[in-house]
Amino acid sequence: MNRETSLFSGRPSELVGQQIAGYRIEQEIGRGGMAVVYRARDLRLERTVALKLLAPELARNDTFRRRFTHESRAAAAIDHPHIVPVFEAGETDGVLYIAMRYVAGSDLRHLLDREGPLPPATAVRVAAQVASALDAAHDHGLVHRDVKPGNILVSRGTDSDHPEHVYLTDFGLTKKSLSLTGFTTVGQFVGTLDYVAPEQISGKPVDARCDVYGFACVVYETLAGHPPFRRDDDMALLWAHQYDDPPPLTEARPGIAAQADPVFAKALAKRPDDRYPSCLDFVAALRAATTGGGPAGAVRTPARGDRQRPGAGEERPQPPPRWAEPVFLPRP
Predict the structure, then answer these.
(1) Which of 42, 107, 135, 146 does the annotation list as catalytic?
(2) Total Cβ atoms within 10 A of residue 272
């Protein structure tokens, strides 16, 4: 079998049952323009993993391979209960691969498509978990660049007080590399149109505040049932992100307190300097606007330096619950 021709041939069954780098492929669970994700069995440790296989042409680019190795190591170094862990990354038979924890459940995209807008308390609870993951990545020098509902996994929680456990995935291990190696050209960007920050569109340098914008677009959608900007064609949508004011959330969701509108206006500001400095800052402001300050024990918004010094007024990150240990077995 020629793996290069079958990987993106549109016939995923060709790889089912095959072994790649010590993993036996069981089922395709996701697909994009540059990668396919499979549920696979780690034959060495006897555990189920999510195996992401990158398009073969990426492995043929020396610059991309070096960036891939560097970024994979950086992502694997993050130990956070709301970030999908990277177990291994490498190359075999001309194919780059990443093995990650397999999370049984759904993603936020499917959840919104099935249930529509979320209750404010649920939306804020989910947002707080994603925000903590994004800020942790930023503290490690990683910018996600493609925050969207499809990259937010929602799995079963531990009890009625914690009904869901949320993971952020697809940390753009290749996104920056693509822009540096000729797979994107001048005037293009890597991201998803509904959630892309103005500076990504214009080709300006991006930092953590790019993720604040994309994350705010996602949270807006969880409450309104649609992203902040909706246009008939892609060019009009790109223009809206760069120049149009976001519509007030309360126009789509009148039952939400009007104080939420200026919170989103700030998070979706065109200039990065005008946005919240962190995702947790944004969530704290949204919680205060929608609940009048939130319950005791709500997510605190520490200064960026505090997040790197547990004990300076911040609780240490809690380990994942027992059901979220590294081995996830597929549901029957």
Answers:
(1) 146
(2) 19
The conformation of residue 245, written as its DSSP 8-state character, comes to P
Instruction: Point out the annotated binding site.
Output: 52
**Residue ranges for the binding site for ATP?**
52
- For the chain, the average pLDDT equals 81
Active site residue 207: no
Give the whole-angstrom CA distance, residue 197 versus residue 227. 13
CA torsion sign, 302 to 306 to 307 to 312? negative
Contact 299, 233 (CB under 8 A): no
Tell me the pLDDT tens digit for each residue of 44-60.
999 999 999 988 888 78
For residue 258, what are the contacts with CB-CB under 8 A and spacing of at least 6?
Answer: 250
CA 120 to chain centre: 20
Domains of the chain and any CATH numbers: 19-102 (3.30.200.20), 106-320 (1.10.510.10)
90/170 Cα distance (integer angstroms): 16
Tens digit of pLDDT for each residue in 266-320?
999 999 999 999 999 999 999 999 986 543 333 333 444 444 434 444 444 455 4
Q: How far apart are CA 28 and CA 15, in angstroms?
A: 9
Q: What is the mean pLDDT of residues 167-183?
A: 57
